[in-house]
């Protein structure tokens, strides 16, 4: 599974989990198993604000051409410059941090 991340300032954090052809986005399961080889699913066909680009199956691999990667007001550079991830195993997806820890002790 290949996921092209689109870093975006957003107040909702993102969690992803993969299980075969099922991508769980913030607790909601999206099953892409029915998508046949060579087919493209437009983002409008998926009821998720986080999927903003088409989904294709190429060579048996799912390609997500746009998944929003929310970040907070104090996000590190690694999150703002995130691009794509390749998933080869099932389980929770490690994403760049939403926000940096801030030191409020000086306030």
Describe the structure.
The chain is mostly beta strands and 107 residues long. It has one domain (2-89). 4% of the residues lie in helices and 39% in strands. It contains one helix and nine strands. A five-stranded mixed sheet has the order 5-6-7-1-8, with no helix packed on it. It has a four-stranded antiparallel sheet with strand order 4-3-2-9, with no helix packed on it. Strand 3 (22-25) and strand 4 (28-31) form a beta hairpin. The termini are far apart. Mean pLDDT is 92; it is low at 103-107.
Question: Care to give the gist of this entry?
Answer:
By secondary structure, the protein is mainly beta. It has one helix and nine strands.
Count the beta strands: 9
**What's the arrangement of strands in the largest beta sheet?**
5-6-7-1-8
Shape: elongated
Give the helix/strand class. Answer: mainly beta
Number of helices: 1
Percent strand equals 35-45%
Question: Sheet bearing the most strands, described?
Answer: 5 strands, mixed
Count of discrete structural domains: 1
Mean pLDDT: 92
Helix and strand topology:
Blueprint: E1 2-9, E2 16-19, E3 22-25, E4 28-31, E5 40-41, E6 55-58, E7 61-71, H1 77-80, E8 84-86, E9 91-92
Parallel strand pairs: 1-7
Antiparallel strand pairs: 1-8, 2-3, 2-9, 3-4, 5-6, 6-7
